[in-house]
Each structure stands twice: as structure tokens, then as C-alpha cells.
Amino acid sequence: MCKRICVTNRHLVRGDFSQQIEKILMLPVDRRPDALIVREKDLSLQDYQRVSVRILSLCKQYGVRCLFNGRYDSARRCGADGVQLSFSTYMDVPMDNLADISLVGVSVHSREEAEIVAKRGADFLIYGHIFATACKPGLPPRGLASLRQICRTVHVPVFAIGGITEDNMADCAQAGATGVCMMSEYMRL
């Protein structure tokens, strides 16, 4: 079964952001995300924490893991289930700073990055972008063959990201991905 991670982007939501998150968390089990990453990179630390704490509360209510994007200190302070970090942030952070965070995911964009991160102890990887996406205009997708290579290279779960929809997520699973990350598919329900 292909696991799902919802990646937030309040700019894609039509209407109230919190109501959209709750709508996502109330989906039938076969469509509900297993985890949610609070992305919202453009918010100040204070605003990010305010939004994240609200989303974390909703996730706990519905039994969905909540991860903070890049803000490992906030994740620890607020009791998030984990963090998702960029490759560069993960490499810059002393491992002691992540020791008490139960779930650490890292975004990678090459086989070399995937190998480094897996050896360093990441719990899971996010690899992409797999398909063409409006988030990366003009940048060619890495494709399923590249995803397959990453999945065969590392021994940690790999989640595909970028242009993932209900229609193509099975292709990612067939390439070896543990699951997929979806933004637009959830934010525009």
C-alpha cells in the first residue's frame, strides 16, 4: 500500500486554511494522509508556530502524524511528531540537535545525497520532483527511472514528490517508493 504525506501550502487553498486541513484529515482512510508536513516557509517564526500548533492539534485529534518543515527547534518545543529538512539544513545541523526528534525526513535531489542522508541516519527521504509540476516551471522532472534507482540504492523509506496525483501515485509505488507527498491534490480538494 502506498503511504501518503500531505504537504501544506496555504496559498493554494480556496477559503479557510484550518478548515481545509480539517477537511483533509476527515477524508476516508484510503485517501487520508498518513502524515502532514507543515511547509509554510514564508511565515515568520512566530506566525509559523501559531499556524503549526493549530495544525498539530488537528492532526492529533485525527491520529495523523504532524511534521514541521525545517523548524526543528519549533518541532521539539511544540511536540510535533517530527521534522522534514532540506539536504543542506540536515547536513548543517549537529546530530545532537535532532536526537530527541522521533522522525526526521530529508529532501534529496540525487543518488549521492540519498546515500549520504541514509548513512547519516535519516528516517525517511523525500525525492523529486518526479513529474512535471507548476511548483518547478521549466525544470524537467527526474522521472520514475530515477526514483527507482534511488529506492534501490538506500535502505530507508523513500517518498516521491512533485506532480503526484491520485492517477500516478501507483506508478511511484511500482518504482519502489514507500509513498508519495502531495500538495496541490490535497490543498485544492
What does this structure look like?
The protein has 189 residues and is α/β, with parallel strands linked by helices. It is 38% helix and 20% strand. The chain is built from 8 helices and 8 strands, in the order βαβαβαβαβαβαβαβα. The protein has helices spanning 17-25, 45-62, 72-78, 87-92, 111-120, 143-153, 169-174, 184-187; strands spanning 3-7, 35-38, 65-69, 82-86, 104-108, 124-128, 158-161, 179-182. The protein has an 8-stranded parallel β-barrel with strand order 1-2-3-4-5-6-7-8, surrounded by 4 helices. Helix 5 (111-120) links the parallel strand 5 (104-108) and strand 6. Helix 1 (17-25) runs parallel beside helix 2 (45-62). The longest helix is centred in the first third of the chain and has 18 residues, at 45-62. The protein is globular, with a radius of gyration of 16 Å. The two termini are 22 Å apart. The model has no long low-confidence stretch (mean pLDDT 95).
